[in-house]
Amino acid sequence: MGEAETSAATLDVEIGGLGGEVTLADLFPPTWVESHSDATSIGDFVDNSGFDVSDQESFESIPTHKWDRYVNAHSEFDDWQSMLSAAVERYVLERAGTTGVDDASSAERESAREESAEANA
After folding, report:
1. Domain residues for 21?
2. Sorting pLDDT into bands at 50, 70 and 90, what band is 121?
3. Which of 46, 70, 96, 118 is the most buried (most CB within 10 A)?
């Protein structure tokens, strides 16, 4: 595990209403990252970006437009906020015990709705 990967996995993310600290590793388990990006873990995803990430401050200092461009190119999401929102949704549903039959992210459901609407047009 590279230095950036180790650091990325322990970065804290403020998630309103969840209480306490939630790490990126909590939000982005490897199976989720593999199914939604070209990386095998959130650490790999950050490490492969080429940005210098050694702590939360360095992660937050990455210019938003550059990080969004990387996320768009290496995941199924348009930007970091979309990726983070989908991961938070998965995390909250899992914690509430409601994942399973319908654990598709809101982004996946929205995409399916758009495809259906286009097919019916």
Report:
1. 3-120
2. low
3. 46
